[in-house]
Design a protein that fits this description.
This is Phosphonate ABC transporter, ATPase subunit. The protein is α/β, with parallel strands linked by helices. The chain is built from eight helices and eight strands. The structure holds adenosine-5'-triphosphate. Adenosine-5'-triphosphate (ATP) binds next to α1.
């Protein structure tokens, strides 16, 4: 599976509906940007999609979900934990196999931080930590990328590099983005969320940044 077709997506907190009910169909090969003001429901929608698509997806959550005490290598390797036996994962914790070491080093190189491979993740900057979560998603190589503000802590050139890389490595993606210009540049479709509902769903080619500002 690469695309997905979900319906009946709903979420409530304390009895208050914050998402849906809504449906979202994403075709294989589409890069969907979720845009909308803070609190509109983008993160909740990403979480709902992940619950349904789960193992078929590579997730970059907004809180990154890193294990600070472990080196960068192990955090990236976690992207493939469920693809190996317990024995393999236990050995990797103590003495990683050269094949995996090389693969992870290559990914970190593509993300401009190969020298951080064995450093504890806690010692990294916010932008470096964000790139570790991105490397973990890339290492997972799932058919669908689900990413929640994956470039929020990156500087301009690095944000572009990461968006290029994500577009190149994932055929299908749903990415929550605050930056409307980046959404238009790197995503083929814009889905605007307002009060937990889809308020805009259009091809990027047919939109300009000002068309999207009405959501804010
Ligand atoms: N764990 C939670 N408990 C209570 N309310 C929550 C929880 N998570 C989200 N909400 C509420 O759900 C709504 C949608 O939140 P969500 O995080 O999905 O928005 P968002 O569009 O991703 O915002 P942002 O751009 O700031 O990340 C908000 O009103 C928020 O307060």
């Amino acid at each position: 599976m690469s695309g997905f077709d979900l319906s009946g997506l709903t979420a409530s907190f304390g009895g208050e509906r914050v998402i849906g009910p809504l449906s979202l169909k994403v075709n294989e090969g589409e890069q969907v940007a979720l845009v909308g003001k803070s609190g509109a429901g983008k993160s909740t929608l990403i979480r709902l999609i992940h619950e349904r698509v789960n193992r078929e997806s590579s997730l970059v959550p907004q809180d990154l979900g890193l294990v600070n005490a472990l080196p960068v290598f192990h955090n990236v390797f976690m992207g493939q934990l469920d693809k190996h036996s317990t024995w393999y994962n236990t050995v990797t914790l103590i003495r990683p196999f050269s094949k995996n070491r090389d693969e992870v080093r290559e990914l970190l190189k593509a993300l401009g931080m190969p020298e951080k491979l064995w450093l504890p993740t806690a010692s990294l900057s916010g932008g470096q930590r964000q790139r570790v979560a991105i490397a973990r998603a890339l290492y997972r190589k799932a058919p669908v990328l689900l990413a929640d503000e994956p470039i929020s802590a990156l500087d301009g050139p690095m944000a572009h590099l990461v968006m290029e890389l994500l577009k190149e490595r994932f055929q299908t993606s749903v990415i929550a983005l605050h930056d409307v210009e980046m959404a238009l540049k790197y995503c083929s479709r814009i889905v605007g969320i307002q009060d937990g509902q889809v308020a805009l769903d259009e091809s990027s080619e047919r939109l300009s940044a000002t068309d999207i500002t009405s959501l804010y």
